[in-house]
Amino acid sequence: MSLTKDGPTPPPATARRGFLDVRDLVVHFFTDDGVVNAVDGLSFSVEPGRTLGIVGESGSGKSVTSLSIMGLNRGRGTKISGEIWLEGQELISASTEEIRALRGSKMAMIFQDPLSAMHPFFSIGAQISEAYRVHNDVSKKAARVRTIELLDRVGIPSPNTRVDDYPHQFSGGMRQRAMIAMALSCDPRLLIADEPTTALDVTVQAQILDLLRDLQKEFNSAIVLITHDLGVIAEATDEVLVMYAGRGVEYGPVKELFAAPEHPYTWGLLQSMTRLDRKDQDRLRPVLGSPPSLIHVPSGCPFHPRCPYDAQAAPASREIRPNLIETTPGHQVACHLEPAERQRIFREEVSPGL
Amino acid sequence: MVRFIIRRLLGSLGVLIAASIVAFGIFFLIPSNPAVLYSGRTSSPATIQATKVRLGLNDPAYEQYYHYMKGIVVGRDFSSGPGDVNHCPVPCLGYSFKSNEPVTSILWSRLPVTFSIIIGAAVLWLVSGVAIGVLSALKRGSVIDRGAMIVALAGVSLPVFFTALILLKLVSYDWKILPNVHYVNFADDPLNWARNLILPWIALAFLFSALYARLTRATTLETLGEDYIRTARAKGLPERTVIGKHTLRAVLTPIVTIFGLDLAQGFTGAILTEKAFGFVGLGQTAVSAVDQSDLPVVIGVVLLSTFIVVIANLIVDLLYGVIDPRVRLA
Prior knowledge:
The structure holds 2 protein chains of 2 kinds.
Chain A: E1 20-31, E2 34-46, E3 51-55, H1 62-70, E4 78-86, E5 89-90, H2 96-102, E6 107-110, H3 124-135, H4 140-153, H5 159-162, H6 172-184, E7 190-194, H7 202-219, E8 222-227, H8 230-236, E9 239-244, E10 247-253, H9 254-259, H10 264-271, H11 310-313, H12 316-319, E11 325-328, E12 331-333, H13 339-350
Parallel strand pairs in A: 3-8, 3-9, 6-7, 7-8
Antiparallel strand pairs in A: 1-2, 1-4, 4-5, 9-10, 10-12, 11-12
Helix pairs in contact in A: 3-4, 3-6, 4-6, 6-7
Chain B: H1 2-29, H2 34-39, H3 45-55, H4 61-74, E1 76-81, E2 84-88, H5 103-138, H6 143-157, H7 160-174, H8 190-224, H9 227-234, H10 239-277, H11 282-291, H12 295-323
Antiparallel strand pairs in B: 1-2
Helix pairs in contact in B: 1-12, 5-6, 5-8, 5-10, 5-12, 6-8, 7-8, 7-10, 8-10, 9-10, 10-11, 10-12, 11-12
């Protein structure tokens, strides 16, 4: 795990690169309303066999990050800078054709809503075979055999016949399984799952997460799991990156993050999580306010307008944007509060209410 | 699939019967006496009475309708008494009041003209409209896109007869590229048939092509924003497959649907086109039949065009079931 400092100085070129290593990623969209700072200096890395969870509210830049890795938002009006290294190859400077060749083979993606993410007019089998045949020079027949294998592997019953069904003939969970089969068709080394369980009901969610975990063991792929569901994070990830307004605000091992979170925003997320073991009289405490505009990002720490501890960190929190700084080994936090003070607040004020 | 076809066929039959009842109703709704129209204004009362018997005009309306419909299916004998039997073969649509020709043969001789115009124009507007629309969408905001959309706006705004006359004036008279436009039978001379039809095709297709270009552009832009297009790219498909297969497939579905309806609209357009170019097709026939109160011909044209439109829609429906797999279950 190489944890890069979120600062203006790039890490030395000799530093060991992670399998997927994102360094100081910046994504700006130029719109009629102004420049959208969708991602603003983000760094993280993932190793094979490990799962990184990226969590944050809508509009925090989670999906934009994943699309940038896949090279799917290279359109006009988009400016991407920084570095994305995948197994030693830099992706931002790679040509469109180079990145296309990687897409679906070395890195694959699973999307949120499997109904809209599958073409309604092509059969499930045709769509999976197609993904396989783009990167493998095989006959239609061989691709079909492979497709049926894959469908079987992701747990679709009677894959021999279901292979010719259309997406609308599948249930939501089955569709997501088919999406996973499609993503896995070329044994990708990196799998990006963008809210793979959000559109599914809870029992199916667990099955899909189990499936992803099993497949990860089997193929030893690196997984980036994007979600706004802390339950999913707790269940399925090894490391967590909490994003806010296009930046990481807290980053560390999943156990550490749930046991000793240090960023007020992470506390807010934990407090707004539904739990069965919560007492009835305890009410959910949502993070007050709404996510900031990414066109006019608040000065200083972008979370300060919503932060209940802003007064204690002022005026620095309103003027200087905090960087991710290591507090305990492997655990980084971007906050102006003193580490000891943060730990005290969590212990005494936040933790009892969770 | 079989049930789908049967249901659509039954529906089509219903439409045809309804149309025939309405068309036949004209006989009784317009303030004129068919027997007088048939025999001529100066005929004696005796002649008119004989005509009434001959045409069965004394029968109640439903019986006349029954005979008419039966005539279409099994043929019909007109008779004013023994020894004077005139057999009208299947499909019998009666005789023109004016020329006494069987309506069927009138229609039969005019149909190829209208058909030639519509089919050629339809192919032209479908291909050009979709091509321009997709290109515009892919090059959104470019000079090509803006230029195409301005021309399309003009196309939507200009009536067929205006386009037709401009084309005639410029291409035919001034530049003499295609002089002396007239209808040539396809069977006689296919090359000349096509050459003489180029202008009518362009005149009729311009309007529809413009509509299709705009529709295709909008649908393409919408489709390009769909999640499944992103999935197609995420699979690593080359851009030409993403556009040519995944996008186009989705774009064509609504186009095919309205194409069936527009073929019907094309009939109306064809009348104006025929008129402008002096072709004698179904449209011209219908217009002059209406002018002259030649009721059998009017009804014949109405029934024939209904039939064609219904068939076109039936084909589109069946095609739609093939193009959109979700329809089959519906």
